[in-house]
Design a protein that fits this description.
By secondary structure, the chain is an alpha/beta fold. The protein has one domain: P-loop containing nucleotide triphosphate hydrolases (Rossmann fold, 3-Layer(aba) Sandwich). Helices cover about 20% and strands about 25% of the residues. The protein is built from 4 helices and 7 strands. Strands 1-7-6-2-5-4-3 form a 7-stranded mixed β-sheet. Helix 1 packs across helix 2. The model has no long low-confidence stretch (mean pLDDT about 90).
């Protein structure tokens, strides 16, 4: 999918909001500046978040709870994670039953979320972004966007 500008990237994230469920995991992979946080911001805004969602780069996990958003969300940035064992300390496994996980830099924990909707953002030839998706079985009825 071609995303020509940041507005289109956020709009794609917003389009995900009608399809997400508690227990879903969406991973966002791509180099710095590719739009991972923009996708997350669009999704969070469509779920009801007023104002701009901060990047969780330093906090690592940014939680959102109703009534701030329509369903519980953990926006996770694994950029500073050096060892996948550190994930246990974050308590993400416990959140998988009733929370949407948005995970940036999932390659820091390979194989940790095998059932995730895995989105990858790469530079497009015209300065935009190319988004590709690895769609697991649980997302097949909800895809394409």
């Amino acid at each position: 999918m071609r995303l020509p500008d940041p507005a289109a990237t956020e709009a794609f994230g917003a389009s995900l909001a009608a399809r997400v469920r508690p227990g879903d995991v969406i991973t966002l992979q791509g180099d710095l500046g590719m739009g991972k946080t923009s996708v997350a911001r669009g999704l969070l805004a469509a779920l009801g978040l007023a104002g701009e969602a901060p990047s969780p780069s330093f906090a690592i996990v940014q939680p959102y709870e109703p009534p701030e958003v329509n369903l519980p969300v953990l926006h996770v940035d694994l950029y500073r994670i050096e060892d996948a064992e550190e994930l246990e300390e974050l308590g993400l496994a416990e959140a998988l039953t009733d929370t949407l996980l948005l995970v940036e830099w999932p390659e820091r924990a390979p194989g940790y979320w095998p059932q995730a909707l895995a989105l990858t953002l790469q530079p497009g030839p015209d300065g935009g972004r190319i988004l590709t998706a690895d769609v697991p079985a649980s997302w097949k009825p909800r895809w394409p966007i």
